[in-house]
Amino acid sequence: MIPGQEVIKKDFQSPGVIVLYTASPWESAVVVLRVTAPAERAGLKVIKGNQGDRVTPELVSEADVVVIQRDFPRFRNAYAQVIARARTEGKPVVYEIDDLLLEMPEDHSTRRDYHGYLLAMLQAIVEADIVTASCPALADYLRMFNPDTRVLPNYLDDQTWNFRTPDENHIDDFPVVIGYMGGETHQADLEYVCPALQNILQRFEGKVKLRFFGGKPPELLLASPFVEWIAFNRDHYADFSQFFMQQVCDIFLAPLRDNLFNQCKSVIKYLEYSVHGIPGIYSHIPAYESIVEPGVNGLIATTMGEWETSLVELIEKPALRRQMGKNAQETVRRKWLLSQHCQEWVEVYREGMNWKNVSHKSSPGQIESIRRVIKQADEYLQELEEKNVELDRVAVTTGNQLEEVLNSRSWRILQKLQQTRIKLIPQGSRIEKFLDGFLSR
Q: Looking at CB atoms within 10 Å, which of 40, 247, 300, 384 has the fewest?
């Protein structure tokens, strides 16, 4: 709450309309999976509060709940206007995040994209009435900043995805196709498991094919004639799901390195793989451990040896692949369909509207202190940016001046004189030593 502003509390029975503010494309996976699909399946109306940096704070007035997603606070002024309006009108604010953006690995390809917005996101987490996260590990981390953090897991939207029946007539055929789906941000995770994949290609030469969907695989693998790469754009989630449902593989892979960022990943890849009725091998992280029964509906691998052993087992045992794939599909059918769980979003939003049930309320003083710290950090970052701009300007000017010197008539004359001097007085010659001695007297 902003000091001096009156909070109007309303007694809502249940949410009917939410307004979402996001920096992500509206058709992207993070928006569809985390907000629009669950809300719409539950009968809620979703208002688009912005289109990129074109933000409409006035739309807060038309909603029962305000949802702020991921790095939307990068639009600092617009975010402040949205929050101020929500507080004035007594609308609960939910902050939604599905990745540990506050602590990305140093070699993550998008780490620098969020550098300038981390403090703004942290502010949004602290001052939200409720925070929603995609898995327990991420929620536990976020509770350090806001104890009113709830888990809304990722589910498979059964209005978008269709369960496939694997073609059992060809399950014994070669080559066995090992598939991987993921974007450029998972390059390091792929490189981690690359040695095991190279060994498999060598061991089963001609009988195994690797098929990568999305980001470019490591060059070491691409050099093999038994490796395929199919690029696609996942920014439009509905198009992606239609594309991926048509793909054919025998085994799926989900390698993730063991770090804090990956420990906070959700089960969504398991769901998107298992809809095919195809078994997968998954990294040893909390999300996959919560859903995979090793040997029943998937396999878990930690070491490079375990990755290779698991692959060999599934390659050599088609009957095991068949049964494990069926079990994985059944796991999703029984427990992980969005139609079975979309009301969880309604319950969380209703909780936000029922103010007395929200245990965490930062005082105006706490919020203002955080804002002052963030303002100072922003000013410092602005100074650094201005200095970088000045350094770039100086570098360009110096480079231009050097270019002018090198291309000048005077410089060319000096070069010719230097060449003539070397011809007349070679370096290390007697005449050079004589002149050096004479001039030093």
A: 384
d(CA 104, CA 116): 13
Q: Cα–Cα distance between 162 and 149 in angstroms, integer?
A: 32
The residue extents of the domains of the chain are: 17-153+342-360, 168-336, 363-434
**Would you state the pLDDT for residue 373?**
55
CA distance 243 to 160: 11
> Where does 168-336 sit in CATH, by number?
3.40.50.2000
168-336: same fold as 17-153+342-360? yes
pTM of the complete model: 0.80
d(CA 365, CA 120): 17
Per-residue pLDDT reduced to its tens digit, 17-40: 999 999 999 999 999 999 999 999
DSSP 219-236: HHHHTSTTEEEE---TTS
User: What is the Cβ-side half-sphere exposure of residue 269, based on CA atoms within 13 angstroms?
Assistant: 23
pLDDT one-digit tens code per residue, 301-318: 999 999 999 999 999 999
Of 74-78, 233-237, 352-356, minimum mean pLDDT range: 352-356
CATH topology for the 17-153+342-360 domain: Rossmann fold (3.40.50)
Distances (CA, A) of 158 to 151, 225, 280, 336: 20, 36, 20, 10
Chain center to CA of 230: 20
